[in-house]
Amino acid sequence: MNSSAENSLKDKFVLFLKTLNAYKTGEFILASGKKSHFYFDLRLFFGNPEAFNFVITKLAEKIRTIKNYARVDGVAGIPTAGLPLAAGVALTEKLPLYYPRKPKAHGLKRVIEGGSVYDQHIIVIDDVITSGSSKIEPIKALRSHGAIVNHCLVILDREMGGADILQENGVQLHSLVKLSEIKEFLD
């Protein structure tokens, strides 16, 4: 992506953050367990068709870029925020959609929904990454069912070690936006 397109993406993303009041300040405990003075509620994008279409379009563009050098057979959304994102990308890119889940004591008791992932190259999708710890369990679940998971795609990388923990697990992180690229425009 060229510099002008990257700036346009960041500008529009920040505009949606502000318009939707999706950037909050205060005291928050993140999924990683870490404390933060700010929070990104990117799930608010789902309730705004223009914002939702924007992130789906940009995630799909990223998938097409990854396809230039890596095999992509499907996408998996990390519940819950990653699921609508992965569904949108799957429809846009005509890719199978999967999602890992905690096993249930009823029904078919599946851990992976959407069909067999055996020998499939799957890109995991979520909204935000902080430490990366919440991505590891779903990646391991997919791999335990035969999937090859080498890529994770998120809207926002908070740059708090997520890329490192993924890399330690053989997964490359891709993000639309990094916190350092937009932080100055949020205050």
Topology:
Blueprint: H1 3-19, E1 23-29, E2 35-40, H2 49-67, E3 74-77, H3 82-93, E4 97-100, E5 112-113, E6 121-129, H4 133-144, E7 148-157, H5 162-168, E8 172-178, H6 179-182
Parallel strand pairs: 3-4, 3-6, 6-7, 7-8
Antiparallel strand pairs: 1-2, 4-5
Describe the protein's architecture and organization:
The protein has 187 residues and is α/β, with parallel strands linked by helices. It has 6 helices and 8 strands. The protein has helices at 3-19, 49-67, 82-93, 133-144, 162-168, 179-182, and strands at residues 23-29, 35-40, 74-77, 97-100, 112-113, 121-129, 148-157, 172-178. β6 (121-129), α4 and β7 form a beta-alpha-beta unit. α2 packs across α3.
Secondary structure class reads alpha/beta
Q: What's the tally of helices? A: 6
Provide the β-strand percentage band. Answer: 25-35%
Biggest β-sheet: strands ordered side by side in the sheet: 5-4-3-6-7-8
Regions with little confidence, pLDDT below 50 for 5+ residues: none
Helix content: 25-40%
Distance between the termini: 27 Å
Shape: globular
Rg, rounded, reads: 16 Å
What labels describe this entry?
187 residues; alpha/beta; six-stranded mixed β-sheet; two-stranded antiparallel ribbon; globular
